[in-house]
Amino acid sequence: MGSKLKENADERSEETKPYTAEFKESAVKLAIESDQPVSRIAEEHGINMNT
Question: What is the domain extent for residue 34?
Protein backbone atom coordinates (compact mmCIF):
# COMPACT_ATOMS: atom_id res chain seq x y z
CA MET A 1 0.00 0.00 0.00
CA GLY A 2 2.82 2.43 0.81
CA SER A 3 4.34 1.99 -2.63
CA LYS A 4 1.03 2.91 -4.30
CA LEU A 5 0.90 6.15 -2.29
CA LYS A 6 4.45 6.95 -3.36
CA GLU A 7 3.55 6.28 -7.01
CA ASN A 8 0.63 8.72 -6.78
CA ALA A 9 2.82 11.37 -5.13
CA ASP A 10 5.48 10.92 -7.82
CA GLU A 11 2.87 11.31 -10.57
CA ARG A 12 1.56 14.53 -9.04
CA SER A 13 5.04 16.01 -8.67
CA GLU A 14 5.76 15.36 -12.35
CA GLU A 15 2.62 17.31 -13.28
CA THR A 16 3.49 20.34 -11.14
CA LYS A 17 4.53 23.35 -13.16
CA PRO A 18 7.01 25.78 -11.65
CA TYR A 19 5.43 29.20 -12.10
CA THR A 20 7.78 32.18 -12.09
CA ALA A 21 7.16 35.13 -9.80
CA GLU A 22 6.46 37.26 -12.87
CA PHE A 23 3.87 34.78 -14.17
CA LYS A 24 2.13 34.67 -10.79
CA GLU A 25 2.12 38.46 -10.48
CA SER A 26 0.72 38.84 -13.98
CA ALA A 27 -2.04 36.28 -13.40
CA VAL A 28 -3.07 37.83 -10.08
CA LYS A 29 -3.08 41.33 -11.56
CA LEU A 30 -5.25 40.14 -14.44
CA ALA A 31 -7.67 38.44 -12.03
CA ILE A 32 -7.98 41.61 -9.95
CA GLU A 33 -8.29 44.09 -12.82
CA SER A 34 -10.27 42.00 -15.31
CA ASP A 35 -14.00 41.42 -15.56
CA GLN A 36 -13.29 37.80 -16.53
CA PRO A 37 -14.05 34.99 -14.08
CA VAL A 38 -10.98 33.67 -12.29
CA SER A 39 -11.78 30.21 -13.67
CA ARG A 40 -11.47 31.52 -17.24
CA ILE A 41 -8.18 33.28 -16.51
CA ALA A 42 -6.83 30.11 -14.90
CA GLU A 43 -7.90 27.97 -17.85
CA GLU A 44 -6.40 30.38 -20.40
CA HIS A 45 -3.08 30.34 -18.55
CA GLY A 46 -2.95 26.59 -17.97
CA ILE A 47 -3.44 26.91 -14.22
CA ASN A 48 -5.34 24.22 -12.35
CA MET A 49 -8.18 25.76 -10.33
CA ASN A 50 -7.04 23.78 -7.28
CA THR A 51 -3.65 25.47 -7.30
Answer: 17-51
